[in-house]
Each structure stands twice: as C-alpha cells, then as structure tokens.
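Summary of Year 1 activities. Much of the first year was spent building the evaluation harness for sequence design. The harness presents a backbone, in tokenized form, and records the residue chosen at every position. We chose the following record to illustrate the format because it has been used consistently in internal testing since the harness was completed.
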C-alpha cells in the first residue's frame, strides 16, 4: 500500500530525486543517506526542514516545491500512464523554483543564489 511517507521519503524514485537535489545545491545534508530515520511524514518533514546550515524557511519552501512535483509525477503515472525520468523531473523542479522566486520566494532565492 502506498502511503504519503513512502511516496515522499522512502520511494526509490523519490530518493533519487533528493540525491539530485543535494548535488544541485551542494547540500550533503539533503541527501537521503544523511536523513535521520523517520516513521511518520511529520517526523520526516521536521527532520529534513531542520537541516543546520540552511535557512529553515528556504528548506521548507524547497521541500514543499519538491513534494508538489513528486505528487504531480505520481498522479501523471497513475492516471495518465506517463512518467518522467529523474533528470526530467529535476528540470521541472528547477523551473518551478525559478517561478516561485519570480513570485517572491525570497528565502528560496537566497538558497539558490549559492548554486
């Protein structure tokens, strides 16, 4: 059975996306292998968005953006039988991040300015 926790934190494809995000932002702490073990989605959210060395607000914005794109990818696969590759989904995440910044996500802009 698919759970939110599985989809966002335990799924192989999702972990692959988070690995790409960690490399893109040069933030090793966002790499799934660095995550603290979590049982619930709330516990995972708290752990990942409380990463030291990164603005909490920026991390939360980024995490919400990634969760949104993963959810859209899941729905595309289930309802339209169309899936994206990890590089394609990363391109969507980067594009969405730029749109969020253009809409005024200043903390996210600060995080991505380091890239």
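For this record, the design step produced the sequence shown next.
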């Amino acid at each position: 059975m698919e759970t939110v926790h599985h989809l966002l934190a335990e799924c192989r494809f999702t972990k692959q996306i988070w690995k790409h995000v960690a490399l893109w932002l040069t933030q090793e702490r966002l790499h799934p292998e660095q995550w603290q073990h979590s049982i619930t989605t709330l516990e995972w959210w708290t752990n990942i968005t409380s990463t030291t060395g990164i603005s909490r607000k920026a991390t939360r914005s980024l995490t919400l953006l990634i969760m949104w794109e993963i959810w859209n990818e899941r729905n595309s696969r289930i309802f339209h039988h169309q899936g994206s590759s990890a590089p394609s989904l990363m391109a969507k995440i980067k594009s969405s991040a730029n749109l969020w910044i253009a809409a005024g996500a200043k903390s996210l802009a600060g995080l991505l300015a380091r890239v």
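The longest helix spans residues 56-79. Quantitative recovery figures across the full test set are reported in Table 2.
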